[in-house]
Amino acid sequence: MKIYESEFLQIQFERENQCVVQFWKKSPEDYSTLKKEFEAYTRLYLKHKPSNALWIQKNFQLPMDHEIHQWIEKNVNIPCVENGNKKVAFVVGMDVLVHLSVMSYFEEANSVIHPLHFATETEARQWLNGSENDIKAETDIKILFEGVDQEGNSIIKIKRPAGDITNTILSFGNLIEENNFIKANISKFSKLTMREKEVMILFAKGLRHQEVADKLFISVQTIKTHWKNIKTKLEIKSLVDVIKYVSAFEMK
Question: Which residues form the HTH luxR-type domain (predicted)?
Fold first, then answer.
């Protein structure tokens, strides 16, 4: 039963499934419009009080920042949970990077809801109508290169079994983040000597100054000099930064 429709959003209430379905007909272009639509969603959720919610994000293309996430948590998530919401399923939108901005909030913040993310509406409904045991572990994920489009862009397809694709998308996001880190810091990294890279690798493994010195057959004072040069060249301050460089540049 359709209970709401605007230029952007359509909401249905399925009494037999105790589920409210939110479908973005058109992506809002600003947070003001987004808030207006979510206010309508929350108002109707509190009226019908279903236990499940299905958010179909196919056409949603508005990146989400921390401030809007906080607003949604206070004005949407908390009221809905207080009125019986138990399960929330997302159907991933076409813009994966935008959906990452949605997912990142639930992964990093202490939200009152813990949604799962699916590739298709069928998979999402199976989970909402079944149990957590219906979700199969992701296996045999394949990344396929399908050529180059007319604009010269590479086309890469990710194939994976049906089920919750949360980890797949988060891994994709981590890959993009790491790639951006490499591009932003490659010039700094190229200034390092081979010895400085060796020192970084050993520090990243948890070795102390004396242990690194013994391993490389040099003095502790020389290690301290290398560490000073590394921090200067990379503009870093801590071991955490070293580990990030070692991981991103696959130093072994």
Answer: 185-250
